[in-house]
User: Fold TetR family transcriptional regulator from Tsukamurella pseudospumae.
Amino acid sequence: MNTSRPATQWGDRDQRRIDILRAGERLLREGGYSALRMRDVADGAGISLGTVYTYFANKENLFIGVFAEQVVGLTERLRPQIEGATDFTAVFTAAATEYREQYLDFGRQFDALGLEHAPGTLQPAVEQHLRDATGGLVAVLGAALVDLGYEGDPRPAMALLWSTVTGLANHYTTARQDFLGVPWDAEIAFAAERLGRSLGVL
Assistant:
């Protein structure tokens, strides 16, 4: 594990939070959710264990904090691809492919949105950050649908699209992908064509 200590100034709460999230992300990438130990996060961020707990009450909240940051990054990567797309297939392919890469490291570790709906589980600031992050992603994808000519209520359309994207990511990052033997590119093209026609954007 990288234990180099960041040169964060004392009293810089925002940067200290970033240091904690980065340390947590490194642990998650290296060993998954079971490797996310608060003491190791403290070591990686160059702070005391007690300081970590002033930001995140437990590892579940820390994971959601890291997950939300990943959603923000996903949105930033997708935005230029989607804004430059001229057809639904390009939008769907970009969203599905980017999400699959993130899902390898984070999606299978924890049911983040399920945890959000368990009353009292998340700290208010952590929950709000997750809501803002996912809301930003949905807004970008929803705007792309409208730009491509979708005229219906975007909410059920987004539920359908996101369920498909997450389901494909789950399928193609596990051994289940070998059962049917359909290559990723072929399945994405098929799903984009079917969804695009059903939504009236192809």
